[in-house]
Design goal:
about 70 residues, mainly alpha
């Protein structure tokens, strides 16, 4: 992981923890969302695609069960 990306991940986590400590749930949610986006940007694109396909299959199965 590049230094800048590692710094961004750490900063997002710190902001999320700080917001949680303050009881600011909206800010904490936004910071954790940013954290996940940064982490996902570092993942292998094929892994992200495979995960998306698997989630789509689950969604279709759930829809068909209704």
């Amino acid at each position: 992981m590049a230094i800048d990306q590692q710094r961004r991940v750490q900063q997002a986590a710190a902001q999320a923890h700080s917001a949680q400590d303050r009881g600011d749930h909206a800010a904490a949610n936004e910071a954790w969302h940013r954290y996940v986006l940064i982490e996902d940007a570092l993942r292998d694109p094929q892994d992200l695609l495979d995960e998306g396909v698997a989630l789509s299959k689950v969604a279709i199965d759930l829809w068909l069960q209704r």
